[in-house]
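Usage

Read records sequentially. Each one opens with the input sequence:
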Amino acid sequence: MGLFSTIMSKIFGHAEAATPSTTVAPAAAGAAAPAAAAATPAAAPVDVDAVLSGLAANAGQPLNYKTSIVDLLKLLGLDSSLQSRKELAGELHYSGSTDDTATMNVWLIKQVYAELAKNGGKVPADWTH
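and closes with the structure output:
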């Protein structure tokens, strides 16, 4: 699983945990439960801002996750090292120089939010531009 998939899983997983489910039957759901969970992002958009705001409220430190890829990764409990960010850049098809970390980081945070929006996340428009 790539880093973006992990980011998506962390954000969408927190949204599912915060939203009581009325569609999954107890124990009898069996194999149908994973299919229902996989369909959730398409059926009901996940409010990315609400999930991240909730996590930030309990972070114990100020994190500028809206504009900083490093802070977003920290907020989600993920590796925010340069190597990790370079891998994410490759995964998301960054075409610039990964040696220009400032430019790469700005591109990464916008691209992550754009990809979340494409995959069922409700993201404020100013986070992707």
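Summary fields computed downstream for this record:
- Residues 101-118 form the longest helix (18 residues).
- Residues 20-42 have pLDDT under 50 and may be disordered.
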